[in-house]
Recover the amino acids of this structure.
């Protein structure tokens, strides 16, 4: 029974999902507790009403506690919103003993963080993208190597301090300490990307209700991240406007009859809805609905493409784009994405789940499952040098141990 227990709370614009999992054999996650609740008090990935959001978090946590039988005191929590930004930075230090040790790596990462970050922003992640020793680049495991000068390329993700604090308060209201915030696309990436894709070069794009989150992986590491404040809710409100329906009905119509490609539906096919204030049901052509959806989804993919180009890595993604998030459940979406962005695309959901997983078998839960995978990643020393900054990992694994101790029944 001393296998570690980890907890993730995915605070999405559409749903809040708390998961409790046991780490089996040091690698596999068995889901023991699930608490999924429709969100309130969130817009475009950020909290706009603390009390409403805190109530939903509390309900979701209670459900997960009830199903798992564990009391939750701390959790990894997802973070998104257009207030998140990222920069790449380089830290340079002298190698004191002539052979690189963990202390040198720590100092190099500290040096990389010494960029001017305004006081109203908080550093969320410092991720190493590779090391350079005496000018030789492409080094992934520097410890034990000889040299005089160590450089680290780091990807630094920051967020608006006040927005982060609001989120912390929402979770804190249920007596839960945030052991680590994890940026949405990094969590999703952990859940759906294969190691081969990461090595080749790939972008993971999570389209949820209120946000579109992207992370670019090249040579196995994260090189770029971004959060756009646009998602499936925009598709729904376009449908509501275009077909003159209340939002709830527009959402229903989208899930039932939606298609992301006009060319994918029969031009004669119709469905029936009762419009705003209308007495008699109206018949609507399905192609009209597809038209509205295609226009908005195409715009989202254009924005993603623009961001990929802006990052400068557009030529480095032979594995293309991996799509996830609830909005990718719509038919025809993969083809549209591939057409607009001109790269191969696949739609992915979390794999190899065991335990209480019936509700989680969907692209909508990639971030939720990814939070748990992230906890696994930071607690694994084998990944430690390879994929993460050592200092951060040491702290996190201590935090994690601490968290696990407190979580044990
Ligand atoms: N079958 C479906 N067809 C089309 N859209 C769908 C389908 N199922 C869910 N969606 C859409 O997916 C979105 C919710 O996705 P998801 O659960 O990933 O969002 P979230 O994580 O709560 O939000 P975010 O991450 O953006 O803050 C909603 O806009 C919903 O309409
Ligand atoms: Mg999400």
């Amino acid at each position: 029974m001393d296998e570690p227990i980890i907890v993730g709370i995915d605070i999405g614009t559409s749903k809040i999902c708390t998961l409790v999992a046991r780490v089996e054999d040091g690698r596999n996650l068995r889901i023991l507790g699930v608490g999924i609740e429709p969100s309130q008090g969130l817009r475009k990935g950020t909290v706009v009403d603390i009390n409403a959001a805190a109530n939903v978090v509390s309900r979701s946590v209670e459900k997960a506690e009830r199903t798992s039988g564990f009391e939750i005191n701390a959790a990894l929590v997802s973070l998104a919103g257009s207030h998140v930004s990222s920069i790449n930075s380089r830290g340079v230090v002298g190698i004191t003993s002539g052979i690189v040790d963990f202390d040198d790596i720590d100092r190099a990462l500290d040096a990389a963080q010494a960029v001017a970050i305004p006081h109203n922003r908080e550093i969320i992640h410092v991720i190493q993208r590779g090391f350079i020793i005496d000018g030789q680049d492409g080094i992934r495991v520097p410890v034990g190597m000889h040299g005089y000068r160590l450089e680290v390329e780091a990807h630094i993700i920051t967020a608006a301090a006040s927005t982060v604090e609001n989120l912390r308060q929402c979770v804190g209201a249920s007596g839960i300490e945030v052991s680590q915030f994890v940026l949405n696309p990094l969590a999703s990436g952990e859940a759906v990307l294969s190691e081969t894709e990461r090595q080749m070069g790939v972008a993971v794009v999570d389209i949820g209700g209120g946000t579109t989150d992207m992370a670019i992986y090249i040579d196995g590491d994260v090189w770029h991240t971004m959060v756009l404040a646009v998602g499936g809710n925009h598709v729904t409100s376009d449908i509501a406007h275009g077909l003159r329906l209340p939002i709830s009905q527009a959402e229903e119509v989208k899930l039932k009859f939606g298609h992301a490609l006009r060319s994918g539906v029969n031009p004669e096919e119709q469905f029936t809805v009762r419009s705003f204030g209308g007495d008699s049901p109206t018949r609507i052509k399905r192609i009209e609905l597809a038209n509205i959806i295609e226009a908005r989804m195409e715009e989202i993919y254009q924005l993603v493409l623009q961001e990929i180009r802006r990052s400068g890595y557009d030529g480095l993604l032979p594995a293309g784009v991996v799509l996830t998030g609830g909005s990718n459940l719509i038919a025809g979406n993969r083809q549209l994405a591939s057409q607009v962005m001109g790269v191969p695309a696949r739609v992915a959901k979390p794999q190899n789940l065991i335990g209480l997983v019936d509700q989680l078998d969907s692209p909508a839960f990639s971030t939720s499952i990814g939070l748990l995978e992230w906890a696994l990643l930071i607690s694994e020393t084998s990944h430690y040098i390879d994929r993460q900054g050592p200092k951060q990992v040491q702290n996190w694994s201590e935090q994690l141990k601490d968290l696990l101790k407190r979580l044990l029944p």
User: Anything to note?
Assistant: The chain has twelve helices and 19 strands. Confidence is low (pLDDT under 50) at residues 381-397, 402-409. The domain at 194-347 is CATH 3.30.420.40 (Nucleotidyltransferase; domain 5). The two ends are 10 Å apart (CA to CA).
